[in-house]
Design brief:
Order of helices and strands: EEEEHEEEHH
Number of strands: 7
Largest sheet: 4 strands, mixed
Strand order of the largest sheet: 2-1-7-6
Distance between the termini: 30 Å
CATH topology: SH3 type barrels
Number of domains: 1
Number of helices: 3
Low-confidence stretches: 77-81
Shape: globular
Structural class: alpha+beta
CATH architecture: Roll
Length: 95
């Protein structure tokens, strides 16, 4: 699958909740891997990028499957701890 195929795909949690659609893809240029999927266009982000990255994006490591839609793991208490671990990544992206 090409990265461009992800754009405008619907994103659902594994419990059936609609989370949005893919508007932008953030790459980790050092590893060459997809890091996050944004549900808002990057060009529309004004002001606090950290807020957008924490509230309007999905860590790609939480993606379970990509087919007709993007299926991600539903948020859980364990994922809250994992998102705390990604604060360093968010700080790097928002600089």
């Amino acid at each position: 699958m090409k990265m461009s195929d992800l754009y405008h795909m619907d994103i659902y949690s594994d419990n059936g909740q609609y989370l949005g659609d893919v508007q932008a893809v953030i790459l980790n240029l050092e590893s060459g891997e997809v890091s996050r999927l944004l549900t808002v266009p990057w060009k529309n982000i004004k002001g606090d990028a950290k807020t957008v990255l924490t509230q309007k994006s999905i860590l790609y490591k939480n993606v379970k499957n990509v087919g007709d839609v993007v299926l991600v793991s539903a948020p859980s208490p364990a994922s809250a701890a994992a998102s705390a671990a990604s604060k360093e990544e968010i700080n790097d992206l928002s600089r």
